[in-house]
Amino acid sequence: MNIKPLADRVVIKMLEAEETTKSGIILAGAAKEKPQVAEIVAVGPGGVVDGKEIVMEVAVGDKVLISKYAGTEVKLDGEEYMILRQADILAKVD
Asked: Among residues 26, 58, 31, 28, which one has the least CA distance to residue 42?
């Protein structure tokens, strides 16, 4: 099954959080922070949203930094995704 976002929405898949700190300490599952870096899986067409023309500035495969509490989590075919508005994307990550 495919997810096709509407308007200015984007479907992302969160990337795994680091399991060790820079000093080499291994983190337990509960101690990990929620990752804020994700990969874009699908992008909506943009268009007119709330009377404003929205041009999509991201593409499938881009790695992005998102707001901490943004989006709606969905589970499809055993995979976890998040659907959010393009405005909730803070930056592209190289």
From this structure: 58
Nearest by Cα to 64 from 34, 33, 40: 40
| CA-to-CA separations, 73 to 4, 13, 38, 43, 47, in angstroms, rounded | 15, 10, 13, 16, 24
3-state secondary structure of 67: coil
What region does 21 belong to: left with phi over 0, alpha with psi -120 to 50, or beta?
beta
Question: What's the CA dihedral at 7, 2, 73, 36 to 10 degrees?
Answer: -80
Which of 47, 56, 42 minimizes the C-alpha distance to 11?
Answer: 42
- C-beta neighbour count of 12 within 10 angstroms: 26
d(CA 44, CA 7): 5
pLDDT block averages, 10 residues each, the chain of length 94: 92 79 65 75 93 95 94 94 96 93
Residue type, 45: P
pTM for this structure? 0.80
